[in-house]
Every structure is written in structure tokens, then in C-alpha cells.
Amino acid sequence: MGKVKNHANKGDATLITADAVRRRAPKLQSGPLDYGQLKDITGFPLKVVWIIGYTLLVKHVDDPAITPQRVSMLELIGSNPGATQSQLGAALGLSRPATTLTIDFWQDRGCVDRRTEPKDRRSFGIHLTEEGERQLADLRQKVQMSDKALTANLSEDEIAQLRALLAKIHQ
Amino acid sequence: MGKVKNHANKGDATLITADAVRRRAPKLQSGPLDYGQLKDITGFPLKVVWIIGYTLLVKHVDDPAITPQRVSMLELIGSNPGATQSQLGAALGLSRPATTLTIDFWQDRGCVDRRTEPKDRRSFGIHLTEEGERQLADLRQKVQMSDKALTANLSEDEIAQLRALLAKIHQ
DNA sequence: CCACATTGTTATCGTCAATAACTGATATCG
DNA sequence: CGATATCAGTTATTGACGATAACAATGTGG
């Protein structure tokens, strides 16, 4: 709990830092800075919100090793039993080594099973174990809670709007 | 044996690995896989869209060293001349070491000036140099173009809606 | 003056991901 | 059939990056 572990992507930046915590006394006069052009583009608040979501998810899951990326992978495996590593990695935009390591992570936890399919013995079909099913069911709840916390300020309609707009961006 | 490309021609197209191709376009819908619960939460498309924005910005800026985070810092410096490193770092959620390095980056490029202010000689006032002004003006255009590309599928109204919704989340 | 807080820098470490090279399996085509 | 290329996955190496901790310099308050 005390220490925050490393679990970040390249573009990641944590909002909460030890330095920030160390800074106790609030400044007397120094108001917030002017964000300049950053106020007028979409990309910046997008990142801020994503970091908030990331932080919320990590907090809800309460296991520093379980990152959103790994959660996504487990969800994808659960929703596509028998998919190959290549398919799973491509769906999340991961390189093949990164895919291998992500699946290794879940296999090491006994959540995932690599099955050699006789029709093409180069690849594996990836399946959840029973432990993986339990883990995924648990994670799904936490993901939902975390997502609900992220959008707590929005009405149902607004959440739907937001998703529709995001969907429109990536077609 | 593996595919060792001896006598390799440097510009040969065959040197492009399958990995590189595979990792293009982490489009949400393009895969044959079922995204399961990921379709029904806000956090996942948020990340996808942010990655698209990140990629667009990197492409428009066309200098791999200039990341969104560094752009944000330069923008912040330009909009708040004389701010201290602590203020700048706090505004972007950076630790003090990360702040130092980010400002080092721009100072090494001659864009930024650390001025010792007599009233508190522990800290610096950070200012843009003339080169920094030019760089920032150039970057602002590229940021706008990139942001416009990100939201190309949205109308003006929809962009405003999206920003309002994002603002509502993180306020 | 002394203890302590602050600002910023440097050192060290761990994590993560990317590229390249490798193994093993399959496809293609003469 | 057999040579060659391609595909799926793993491993090795490297590099980027952030975090913590320790440090110097400066400021503040008893």
C-alpha cells in the first residue's frame, strides 16, 4: 500500500507522486498556472482523464501487478477462448514479445492455459483455467466499479454520449 | 535455421518485420475478436483514442524526441514565464526529478532559460529563449493540426461536447 | 546558532517494451 | 520429394523512463 510500484506504459505519467504528497503546506498566493493552448485542445484533457481512470482501476484492483493492459488481455482471452497469441496481441496493439510476456503473467498465476492445437502446431489456443474464470469474474466487477467511479460526475445519457463520441473518433 | 538475412540490403523492404506491420492500427473494431466487457466501459476506448492522439502528435511533430509531455511543458513555460520548476512539475503531475529532466531537455535545445531570482535563490524562474518562442510557435501549429486530425470525424458541436464531458470528469 | 523544510540535482534501481535473432512448424513451388 | 520462405512464439539484449533516496544549497523559525 505504501509504495506505488512501476507498471506504466511509455506514455504514462502518474498524477500522484511522492513529491506531490511531500508538499504539505498549500501555497499562500501561487494560484494554478495557465494551461495556455492545452485548454483548447482535446488531447490534453483526454490524457488527464485517462490517467484518472488508470489510477482508479489500479486502486480498485488493489494489486499493483495487475495493470489495465493485463486486465484487457484476460478479458479478451475470456471472451475469445482458443484465440492465438497473435490474434490477442494484435487486438491490443502489442508486439509479439509483449504478448508473450503478458500471457506469461497470467499463466504464472494459473489463470491461463496454452493448448497446442493439432491443426497448426505452431500456435497455441489460449484458454482460461477455472482459476482464470474466477479471477476474470472478480476483475470484471472491479473494472465496472472503477469505471463507474470514473464517470461518477456524468449522467447515464452523458456517459452514452461520451462513448459515442469516442467511438466516432476511432470509427 | 532461422531467417538470417545475410548480405542484407539496407533499404530492403523484406527487412520490415511482421511485428512492425502487425502493430499498426490498434483499431478497436478491426479485429475479428470479441472485446467483451471492454466494449461496455469508458476507460478502454479512452485509452485507444488517447493512443491515436499520441501517435498523431508524434507524426505531426516529426521528431521522436518531442513527446506530448515535453510539448506540454514547453507550452506551460511559455504561458507562465518565470514559474518555478516545482510549479511546472506540479501542474503536469511530474515528480521533481522528472521535472528537472524535462526542463533539461528544452534547455539543451536552447529553448529555455533558468534564471536565478534574487528573492529565493533555491529556485529558478523558467523562461523561454527566443529560440524557445520560435519552437513553441511552431509546435502550437503542429499541435493544433494534430488535434484537428484527431477529431476529424467530429463536428464542431461534437468536439465542444466531448471537451465539456471530459472537463466534467476531472473537475 | 541550530534544527528543519524547501528547491533542485544526481545516483541507483526496477520495470517495461522494442528490436533482433533464434527454434520449431507449416506452406509453397520447382 | 526437397529447398526455401514464411509464420508463431520465445529469448537476449538494449534503451527509455519513472521512482525513490540521498545530496547540496538555500530559506525559515525557534
Descriptive overview:
Two copies of one chain form a homodimer. With 171 residues, chain A is mainly alpha-helical. Helices cover 54% and strands 6% of the residues of chain A. Chain A has a two-stranded antiparallel ribbon with strand order 1-2. In chain A, helix 3 (68-79) packs across helix 5. The longest helix of chain A is centred in the C-terminal third of the chain and has 21 residues, at 130-150. Chain A is elongated and about 60 Å long. Chains A and B meet through helix 1, helix 2, helix 3, helix 4 and helix 6 of A and helix 2, helix 3, helix 4, helix 6 and helix 7 of B. Chain A binds a DNA duplex (30 and 30 nucleotides) through residues 3-10, 12-14, 17-19, 22-25, 84-86, 94-101, 104, 120-124.
Secondary-structure map with pairings?
The structure is a homodimer.
Chain A: H1 18-22, H2 43-61, H3 68-79, H4 85-92, H5 96-108, E1 112-116, E2 124-128, H6 130-150, H7 156-169
Helix pairs in contact in A: 2-6, 3-5, 3-6, 4-5
Chain A binds a DNA duplex (30 and 30 nucleotides) through helix 1 and helix 5.
